[in-house]
Amino acid sequence: MQLNHIGINIVDTDEIQHFYQEILGFYPERSFPISTEISRIFFGLEGETKAFIVQNNSLRLELFVYDKPLNTGYAHLCVEVEHREKTARKCAAIGYPVIRMKREQGDLIFVKDKAGNVFELKNKLNENLS
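and the corresponding structure tokens:
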């Protein structure tokens, strides 16, 4: 297993430059919108937001802009596994909630542990989806 990225909440986009870039040395990779549907289904939040990917060496963060204090919010760990579907089936078989969403650009699979921590499952690069 290999860590792909860590998703965390921020309250203001100014933090990206002032804290993550200038202080921690991250550089911006890209940004994208998070739809209301994804917010609701995977994170239990209502409304849209924007996510920013920043990286420093081998550490990549996905920063979710949400202006309200959150207990868990968009926070999650994204891990690359050998076989994503097999991992999801194993989790479901032993009682861990598996949440999936079909999308045109590829489906999303998230798993929650007993404490409610959220893990996004991705296949290791250059592998099929089974």
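(Above: one complete record from the training split.) The longest strand covers residues 2-10.
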